[in-house]
Amino acid sequence: MRLKTNSGHKSGKLTRRGFFHILVALLASPAILWWFMVGRRDMKMSARQQSLIIGKAIPPGVSFIDFAIVINNEDGVSAFEAKCTHLGCRISKIEGDQLVCPCHGSRYNLSGKPVKGPAVKKLKKLKIVHDPRSGEYIIHKNE
Length: 143
Ligand code: FES
Prior knowledge:
single chain; alpha+beta; 6-stranded antiparallel sheet; 4-stranded antiparallel sheet; binds FE2/S2 (inorganic) cluster
């Protein structure tokens, strides 16, 4: 009589089930490794991407620059995170004077306040600093 173990072996002999478990593990391990590496790389990129340096001239109106929406109007220069407060889609479109989320149609005015749902919270305002020496603008994501 042969004893079956949890590893799929019968007294040292590999069963069909054990063979398939090993085969699945071998086939899945490169995918798991790739997922882990890509995930780690994205984390490093997002950790690095905490500020944006914009050149000397910010064009009038609305600009979508990386993670930011930069507004240059009669009130001055301001910036919001380009992340919809509903479910986090990236806002990259303006219609008239409203910022439009492509996912479910939320709209925000140029002060970041929602004027049409489903979003109900304001866009996150970003700190923007002007460096008088270089003339550049620096937008900070997490301040
Ligand atoms: Fe923007 Fe839903 S994620 S409206």
